[in-house]
Amino acid sequence: MKVSLCLVTEVQAGSICPEPQDLPVELQEFQKVFSEEFFTMLPEYCPYDIAIDLEEDKQPPYGPIYSMTPAERESLKEHIDSELAVGKTVPTTSPAGAPVMFLDLRNGYHNIRIKEGDEWNTEFCTALGHFAPTVMQFSLSNAPAVFMHFMNNIFHDLLDISGLYVTYIGLVITPDVISMEKDKVQAIMDWPEPQNVKQVQSFLGFANFYCCFVPNFSCLAHPLNILTQKEQPWIWLEEQKAAFDAIKAEICKEPVLAHPDESKPYTLETDASGAAMGAVLSQRKEDGCLHPVAFMSASFSPAELNYDMHDKELLAIICAFEHWRIFLEGTEQPITVFTDHKNLEYWKSARTFNR
């Protein structure tokens, strides 16, 4: 078991959030979370305190004391002093101890206690002494899961009362649909025509984030992808310009995706061309129309390019089922697949093979 501690040195614990003087009425009941006292106080023990169970016959290691600059040493002293003052760290004499390293992080984990009796497993040694934290430290393997449990326990009964949508990593999520963030769409609209391979790669990297909104994205992008291949000469012709403009046009339509509904059957539409395949997963909503849940596309590998057309069409179906396995594998509703290749009906007929 390897234990390392990442100590916050950015600011003093009590100087981050001054207590507000005039909170909105609807936030008055949460006023304590803005106070210095609440931020620095030692939390109570609770059911989700982090436990540190060692493997049998294993002991925490004893790490070296790293050399520090005067500024780092002073920051470490300030941090230890502030933690000792509120009980989040206590002096120890145990032979075990991890070295200290500095990371630019906040103190969110310090709202969770280490399970009583397990503190010695996270001890750290410094030139200033030997200490054991009483609150959860960064880099413990189970810290993210414990912190998520902590956050879920706090927010499970709270609702967002300030809006009807959430913006998350370039997506706008509402109760009904998922769409693209408008400033990202505007960035695509304003994107200048590439002048070299690096600019093509930059455009494709940005646009590829929204490929799930664009039907047959890989097919549209194929002429541009060719330019990024090794030892491919730079040739910007009408075909590349048309592909560039087509991708921009599809994204600028600002398509939306419906949320999947497990109670409704899925419809899968697949297609394959000479160079790429694509699919759309849809569901029929309350208005009686099919609404896309997601789009998928991919270029064929060099080996797949040699497939016959009916095999490419079948591969598109297989890849679509694999790509959306999380939706399709456990559904109790029938899945309808639409494909435009009549030769695939051959696979539905019973066949007798001679040995």
UniProtKB/TrEMBL annotation:
InterPro entries: DNA/RNA_pol_sf (IPR043502), Retrovirus_Pol_polyprotein (IPR050951), Rev_trsase/Diguanyl_cyclase (IPR043128), RT_RNaseH_2 (IPR041577)
Alphabetically ordered keywords of this record: Multifunctional enzyme
One Gene Ontology term of the molecular function aspect: catalytic activity
The UniProt record lists the keyword Protein transport: no
Domain Reverse transcriptase/retrotransposon-derived protein RNase H-like: 236-336
Record has Zinc-finger as a keyword: no
Superkingdom in the source lineage: Eukaryota
Entries under Gene3D superfamilies matching the protein: 3.30.70.270, HIV Type 1 Reverse Transcriptase, subunit A, domain 1
CDD domains recorded: RNase_HI_RT_Ty3
Alphabetized Pfam families for the sequence: RT_RNaseH_2
Listed name of the protein: Reverse transcriptase/retrotransposon-derived protein RNase H-like domain-containing protein
Organism this protein belongs to: Rhizoctonia solani
